[in-house]
Specification:
The chain is built from 11 helices and 8 strands. The strands form 2 sheets. The chain has a 6-stranded mixed β-sheet with strand order 4-3-8-7-6-5. The chain has a two-stranded antiparallel ribbon with strand order 1-2. 46% of the residues lie in helices and 14% in strands. It has 339 residues and is α+β, with helices and mostly antiparallel strands. 38% of the residues are buried. Among the domains are: 115 residues, no CATH class; 122 residues, Roll (Nuclear Transport Factor 2, Chain: A), CATH 3.10.450.
């Protein structure tokens, strides 16, 4: 692929905020108090034909979705998209398939970041969860059936397995094109995809939960945990329920995954005795395909809770409390206080 020698300045990731609009750390977006506009990186115009920019903009949602599924981080996904733009801005207008070319760039950028991302996971304080994305504003990212639970299953794959599965099974790329993107033999890529698919399918629920049933269980769980209703809580939880809480060392959270209904019940009972003030519901939402809600406690701590429901019971509880991961959520629901 030939490249032009004319230099292109890196575009600004986001439109310039007014002096009163403070950026939300980790997202590059305005704080929720500044705007209700969804967090969305802006590609600044450079000295290229409008058609070149338009071709990139047409693929931007797909690239963002791929990068988020690969990294689990919205901020990293936005960085990948920006780096892809830099490379795209430098190529001549002779690319036969912008979609394939940009997908290849974004995938390789994600793979280049894989080692450093894994190192950060290993030193991360406590349990790690992907950035929570709420359905109200991130539909273009969530235009697939990859739930938060499946995101965690993807995280346990090797980077190449993850890429092979996403490109072939989620983004519907032909195996030969995936092989070209990953610079691997098609037979090897097929094996990568098979291993990944087996792992992901094992984490997928047997039956789809109806939206109304999921919302009902989420509301019942919130009420029972808030009110300390142990009988109601016990009727909602699976025997092998797990609770994962991500505070990133920034706020109080459970450092390890809590497993089993007895331990989870004791945990909620202890929290109810320790904290008399009840959390405030800010919004009922769908988080990465799972029913859930956004709350704030009297101490001002902001949190998302997502519930994985299997066979009519709550099988997993995911609580994200790390403020670095919640700026875009606060903005999406119009939350006006600092987090």
């Amino acid at each position: 692929m030939k490249t032009s020698r004319s230099s292109s300045a890196r575009p600004s990731r986001f439109s310039s905020p007014s002096p009163s609009a403070r950026s939300t750390p980790g997202t590059g977006c305005r704080s929720a108090s500044a705007s209700r506009t969804p967090c969305r990186p802006k590609i600044a115009r450079v000295s290229r034909p409008d058609g070149h920019l338009a071709a990139f903009e047409a693929q931007r949602p797909r690239l963002l979705r791929l990068a988020y599924r690969m990294t689990g981080s919205l901020a990293e996904a936005e960085d990948v998209v920006q780096d892809a733009w830099i490379r795209w801005a430098r190529v001549e207008d002779t690319v036969d398939s912008p979609a394939a070319y940009l997908t290849r760039i974004a995938t390789r950028l994600c793979l280049d970041r894989a080692d450093s991302a894994r190192a950060r996971r290993e030193t991360y304080y406590g349990a790690w969860l992907p950035d929570p994305l709420v359905e109200t504003t991130e539909m273009e990212i969530m235009a697939d059936d990859i739930t938060l639970t499946l995101m965690l299953a993807l995280e346990r794959l090797s980077p190449l397995e993850r890429a092979a599965f996403l490109l072939h099974d989620v983004f519907d790329m032909e195996l030969a094109d995936v092989a070209t993107t990953l610079d691997r033999d098609p037979a090897a890529v097929r094996q990568l995809a098979v291993r990944a698919r087996r792992h992901v399918e094992a984490a997928r629920p047997r039956f789809k939960v109806e939206r109304a049933d999921a919302d009902r269980l989420a509301r019942a769980f919130f009420a029972a945990s808030r009110d300390g209703d142990t009988a109601a809580l016990a009727s909602l939880l699976a025997q092998d329920v797990t609770l994962t809480s991500d505070g990133g060392g920034k706020v109080i959270a459970f450092r390890n995954v809590i497993t089993g209904i007895a331990k989870v019940m004791r945990l909620f009972a202890g929290l109810r005795r320790k904290f008399e003030e009840r959390p405030e519901i800010l919004e009922w939402v769908t988080i990465d395909g799972l029913p859930g809600y956004v709350t704030r406690d009297r101490g001002g701590i902001f949190q998302t809770t997502a519930l994985d429901i299997r066979d009519g019971r709550i099988a997993a509880i995911y609580m994200t409390r790390n403020p670095d991961k919640l700026g875009h959520v606060a903005q999406a629901i119009g939350y006006s206080a600092d987090i």
